[in-house]
Design goal:
With 303 residues, this protein is α/β, with parallel strands linked by helices. It has ten helices and 17 strands. The protein has one domain: Metallo-beta-lactamase, Chain A, CATH 3.60.15.10. β2 and β3 form a beta hairpin.
């Protein structure tokens, strides 16, 4: 009886401290999740709202969320999928099963593979509201501002094989398009460029929108000078152009990468960073990487 009482007391005390430690601290917590060869980033805002940017190639993202979300929080306010490639969307199947998702920001373009079609059906089945956002659109999570820099709606329309308004060829939820075919075979070009801002701190998430689309992006968009850049395309040799890096001038670049047959991150990618004395961190070496900002500076923690 005494042992049971002590065990029960220990559990209560543990839960109390876990709750206390998860209370808002007026800081932004940005975690680059170690999901292997893929992308996933979790954001906890100063007002305790949750944003998930991509979800990696498998359910490893659940481990990252479990370590960084309060144990009592089973709701993700916004999920943003940069583009419909397996190493970015696959983990969402598990996330949607485990958590309540209030909104999902998803590209209008589709991927015909079975896994992505299953994801679209699951979104529809669970009646998750879908938002299609384009260059110039923004949304807020408390004091955190999220700006979509790319692609523009006209560019997307020009690169789809069907009209954005053609409901007969798309899967829809509400009034939003969930999956239209594309004339452009490279889905990476559709990657949403997302700028996150909290006070004077900002970070750029370009998905896999690499050097092959960056000249076009830079013609259409005034890219910001940022504190942190999520390196495009996992450190591919096509990841960035010199002009792109000279424009965004990050203090820190995070490379989301795992074991892969392409040699990511490549020498070409690392040389561009080293030639500019830009600090970089890799999830395959550091695991989950947490950036904490008070809206001015930031600190880096290993998770």
């Amino acid at each position: 009886m005494k042992k049971s009482y002590l065990l029960g007391s220990f559990i209560v005390i543990t839960l109390f401290f876990s709750f206390f430690l998860s209370l808002p601290d007026s800081k932004l917590h940005l975690v680059f999740c170690d999901v292997g060869q893929g992308d996933a980033a979790y954001v906890r805002t100063p007002s305790n709202q949750d944003l998930l940017i991509d979800a990696g190639p498998n359910d490893k993202v659940l481990d990252c969320l479990g370590k960084n979300m309060p144990f009592y929080d089973r709701t993700i306010d916004v999920v943003l999928l940069s583009h419909p490639e397996k190493d970015h969307y696959s983990g969402l199947l598990s996330v949607i099963d485990r958590y309540t998702v209030k909104y999902i920001v998803i590209p209008a373009v589709t991927n015909e593979d079975q896994g992505y079609q299953k994801l679209l059906e699951k979104i529809k089945e669970k009646k998750i509201p879908v938002k299609n956002l384009y260059s110039g659109d923004k949304f807020f999570l408390g004091k955190v501002e999220l700006d979509i820099l790319w692609p523009g709606k006209e560019w997307v329309a020009d690169n789809l094989s069907t009209s954005l308004s053609d409901s007969s060829t798309s899967l829809r939820t509400g009034l939003k398009v969930l999956g239209l075919a594309t004339k452009n075979t490279d889905l990476n070009y559709f990657s949403q460029y997302l700028q996150l801002r909290y006070g004077s701190f900002d970070a750029l998430f370009p998905g896999d929108g690499d050097s092959r689309i960056q000249p076009e992006v830079m013609e259409e968009v005034s890219l910001p000078d940022v504190d942190i850049l999520k390196f495009p395309h996992h450190g591919s040799k096509y990841g960035v152009t010199d002009a792109f890096m000279d424009k965004v001038k990050p203090e820190l670049t995070v490379i989301s990468v795992g074991k892969n047959p392409w040699g990511h991150p490549t020498k070409e990618a690392l040389d561009i960073l080293q030639n500019r004395s830009i600090k970089y961190l890799r999830t395959d070496q550091r695991g989950n990487i947490e950036v904490v900002s008070d809206g001015t500076g930031y600190n880096i923690n290993n998770k």
